[in-house]
């Protein structure tokens, strides 16, 4: 019997798993996908929000502000890319200036530092912002992060500290028993004293299985463009418009790896797997960002994608032990700013678990640190030479666009919770994220995965189990 089963290996489930690995507890993470962070954690704006925007008094506001403060330390411990670049909300009309006043008031209540900027100050910092800009609100504590890199790092660190992860296990039934819960997946049966539901857009369906307090999740899709690194720094901070009623609006966002994201839209949809992009959505993004920022090189778009917000009908994060079904903890409706809030949500859930399993002892061997796969391209020449001498795989460049070596790919496959798919390798060390989008390196990544995992090349998939790349030989 496990002490705790966490359902879902997105940023919420993995952050909680890491927090619980600080205790001598038997913890298991069950994930239906074949990799960590394949849900919403894979497709969002990657902003560590400052927290001035959520409505004061909500859980969103509370955990956003707390989570933001935790980011520098967590990313240092887990060696994950994080940049504190600040955000600027810009006012283009007199009405927007009124909204900035309201946001400034809200920031005081939420306890978040902000600074008013004049038109001249904005244009000095951000020469590509629309010259008609009237004023702006700088939030210096906002930042950017690698969201899936953080989730992978949390899981790897949790596993180093004793947590188990089982992929390809979709939870189908959860029954309350005398001693806890029986959890049935497509692959097996697991018993646990406590169950934590972090199933993203599916959290309402899992909650319904134990007849917990009712809530429903209706996804809202957000579509994006990704610009190639060669576009350079179009903006230096995250640029927000004044927020719309239903969302934060369409943004221009630098990424930690030097690309630029443009998006997202905010469209309610029915399909919980509906992550396709649409012409209307992308046209809307193009139109909206063009109003805020000039000189956007749309010729440098290398990809578009869609993420799904897990919007709950309660209008706020749901982080609570079910009263109807004690021992079952819902961490649901975690839409934006859920990525930012994740470390603080994990602390809150740790408290709930300690309240249920009141004999938890600290894990004396807990090690908070984890080193990322080395990024060979960033190393000084002498160090590169030394590493190649030790392991010649680092002298073999596989991805020409991003200069990723075979050594990096092999390392990310053999780590705890390591990559088993082409997308898994891409998420961890980035071959295929450059201009050619894998045109050159993908077959070589397939070859390396097959060799390292002891599989045939035609067994290697791009992402999901049906996404086969090779289906048979064309020549004998
Ligand atoms: C367009 C968009 C932009 C956003 N931008 C930001 C931002 O800039 N900053 C910010 O702070 N937040 C942002 N967010 C919110 C943030 O991305 C989410 O809050 C966060 O990723 C949610 O993580 P999660 O772990 O709850 O969900 P997910 O990442 O979806 O993880 C849930 C996991 O549960 C698994 N699962 C589901 N059902 C089952 C089952 N039956 N059995 C086993 N496993 C199951 C899924 O496969 C998935 O891996 C954004 C969200 C969107 C959509």
From TrEMBL:
Gene3D superfamilies: BFD-like [2Fe-2S]-binding domain, D-Amino Acid Oxidase, subunit A, domain 2, FAD/NAD(P)-binding domain
Protein name: Glycerol-3-phosphate dehydrogenase
Source organism: Alkalibaculum bacchi
Residue ranges constituting the FAD dependent oxidoreductase domain according to the UniProt record: 3-348
Domain annotation BFD-like [2Fe-2S]-binding: ranges: 397-451
């Amino acid at each position: 019997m496990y002490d705790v089963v966490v359902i879902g290996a997105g940023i919420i489930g993995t952050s909680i798993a890491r927090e619980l690995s600080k205790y001598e507890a038997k913890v298991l993470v069950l994930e239906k996908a074949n990799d960590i962070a394949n849900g919403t954690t894979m497709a969002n704006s990657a902003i560590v929000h400052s927290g001035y925007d959520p409505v004061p008094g909500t859980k969103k506001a509370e955990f956003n502000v707390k989570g933001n403060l935790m980011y520098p330390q967590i990313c240092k411990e887990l060696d994950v890319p994080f940049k504190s670049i600040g955000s600027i909300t810009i006012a283009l009309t007199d009405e927007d200036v009124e909204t900035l006043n309201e946001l400034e008031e809200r920031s005081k209540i939420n306890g978040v530092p902000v600074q008013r900027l004049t038109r001249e100050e904005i244009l000095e910092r951000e020469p590509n912002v629309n010259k008609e800009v009237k004023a702006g609100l700088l939030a210096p504590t906002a930042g950017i992060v690698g969201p899936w890199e953080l989730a992978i790092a949390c899981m790897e660190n949790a596993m180093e500290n004793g947590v188990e992860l089982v992929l390809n296990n979709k939870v189908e039934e959860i029954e309350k028993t005398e001693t806890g819960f029986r959890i049935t997946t497509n692959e097996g049966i697991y018993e646990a004293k406590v169950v934590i539901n972090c199933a993203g857009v599916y959290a309402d369906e899992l909650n319904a299985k134990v007849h917990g307090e009712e809530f429903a999740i209706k996804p809202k899709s957000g579509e994006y463009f990704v610009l190639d690194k060669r576009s350079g720094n179009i903006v230096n901070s995250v640029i927000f418009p004044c927020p719309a009623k239903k969302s934060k609006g369409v943004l221009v966002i630098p990424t930690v790896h030097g690309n630029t994201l443009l998006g997202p839209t905010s469209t309610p949809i029915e399909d919980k797997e509906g992550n396709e992009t649409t012409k209307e959505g992308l046209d809307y993004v193009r139109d909206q960002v063009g109003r805020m920022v000039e000189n956007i090189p749309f010729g440098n778009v290398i990809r578009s994608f869609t993420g799904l917000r897990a919007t709950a009908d309660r209008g706020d994060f749901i982080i609570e032990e079910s009263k109807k079904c004690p021992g079952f903890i819902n961490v649901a409706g975690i839409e934006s700013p859920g990525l930012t809030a994740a470390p603080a949500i994990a602390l809150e859930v740790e408290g709930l678990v300690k309240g249920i399993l009141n004999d938890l002892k600290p894990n004396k061997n807990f090690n908070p640190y984890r080193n990322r796969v080395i990024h060979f391209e960033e190393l000084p020449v002498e160090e590169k030479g030394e590493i190649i001498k030790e392991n010649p795989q680092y002298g073999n460049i596989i991805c020409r666009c991003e200069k990723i070596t075979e050594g990096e790919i092999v390392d990310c496959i053999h780590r705890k919770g390591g990559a088993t798919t082409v997308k898994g390798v891409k998420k961890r060390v980035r071959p295929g994220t450059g201009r050619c989008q894998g045109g050159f390196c993908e077959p070589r990544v397939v070859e390396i995965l097959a060799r390292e995992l002891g599989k045939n090349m035609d067994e290697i998939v791009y992402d999901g189990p049906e996404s086969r790349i090779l289906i048979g030989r064309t020549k004998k």
